[in-house]
Design goal:
The protein is α+β, with helices and mostly antiparallel strands and 300 residues long. It contains 8 helices and 8 strands; from the N terminus they run H-E-E-E-H-E-E-H-H-H-E-E-E-H-H-H. Helix 6 packs antiparallel against helix 7 and helix 7 runs antiparallel to helix 8. The radius of gyration is 44 Å and the shape is rod-shaped.
Length: 300
């Protein structure tokens, strides 16, 4: 508003008017002034004169302009960050939200989200833990760091994020609100789920392979035992029994590897005990099969 505008409004409305304006000095420097005009009237109420009061507000204007530039810079930065950033008051209502946050919340404009709480935006199942975290921050000053959260947007998209919430303090130390930052980990969660799915499929396949290998080894062991029983000659029997013992030893180790949680956790003590028992059993079996009968009393 110019001085002419002030003068006109005072004359027309007979009300006090104030205007800020910039004036170029003779040295080329620009200064800001604030002028207030007041209508002075006679006792009968008719206008008599206008009183103008002017003061230099250059420093205040420059400070305001600097603050506006800083706010605009901060706004540009937070809106360019592809992660949700927001500020809530002590009642848990949104006061600031960047583009990502109000888009996640299902809004096209920040002003549509401002003043709303999580209970106004999300379903009770989603909002309840959000509100509980807010209360921890706002009531007790406890920060929430990288809490894993699941969001289901209004269009049905599932989003996973790590949320951090920090208290905001006034100069006297009282909590005035909180600032929240989220980090989208949806792709990571999807990759983890895919890996778990593939591991489950491979586990099923490996168990099937194990079952077949175990059965095949058992069949080989049975065939060797059958051949050893029907073989003639001590040397042949000994060779077949030796082969059978090797197959059985391999089967025991194979079972230990599979039954355990991993090859790095195989207990050599358990394996060796099983192997020794097997060797003793095979030795006794071989001794019974390889004896030579020369007549006389029946061997015991």
């Amino acid at each position: 508003m110019s001085l002419n505008d002030i003068f006109g409004r005072i004359v027309n409305f007979q009300e006090q008017q104030t205007a800020d304006y910039r004036y170029r000095m003779s040295n080329g420097e620009y200064l800001w002034f604030e002028t207030t005009g007041t209508m002075l009237t006679r006792d009968d109420g008719t206008p008599e004169q206008i009183l103008f009061n002017t003061r230099d507000i250059t420093e205040r204007k420059e400070a305001e302009q600097l603050l506006d530039r800083q706010r605009q810079l901060l706004r540009t930065i937070i809106d360019s960050i592809p992660q949700p950033i927001y500020v809530k008051d002590v009642e848990g209502r949104k006061q600031i939200a960047n583009k990502t946050d109000y888009h996640y919340s299902g809004f096209e404009r920040e002003e549509d989200l401002i003043g709303k709480s999580d209970s106004d935006i999300w379903s009770p199942e989603i909002a309840t833990p959000f509100v509980a975290d807010d209360q921890r921050v706002l009531m007790h000053g406890e920060s929430v760091i990288d809490r894993e959260e699941q969001l289901i947007t209004r269009n049905g998209h599932v989003i996973w994020q790590l949320t951090t919430k920090l208290p905001l303090y006034e100069s006297d130390g009282t909590i005035s609100g909180l600032v929240g930052i989220g980090r989208d980990i949806t792709e990571r969660k999807q990759a983890e789920e895919e890996i778990q799915h593939q591991l489950a499929e491979k586990e099923t396949l490996l168990r099937e392979v194990h079952h077949r290998i175990k059965n095949n080894m058992g069949q080989i062991e049975s065939l060797l035992s059958f051949q050893a029983d029907s073989a003639e000659g001590a040397e042949v029997k000994s060779a077949l029994n030796t082969a059978m013992s090797r197959v059985r030893s391999t089967r025991i180790l194979y079972e230990k590897l599979l039954v355990g949680k991993g090859h790095e956790e195989v207990s050599m003590k358990d394996y060796l005990e099983s192997l020794i028992e097997l060797l003793v059993e095979i030795y006794n079996l071989i001794s019974r099969r390889n004896y030579t009968y020369t007549g006389g009393e029946t061997p015991k």
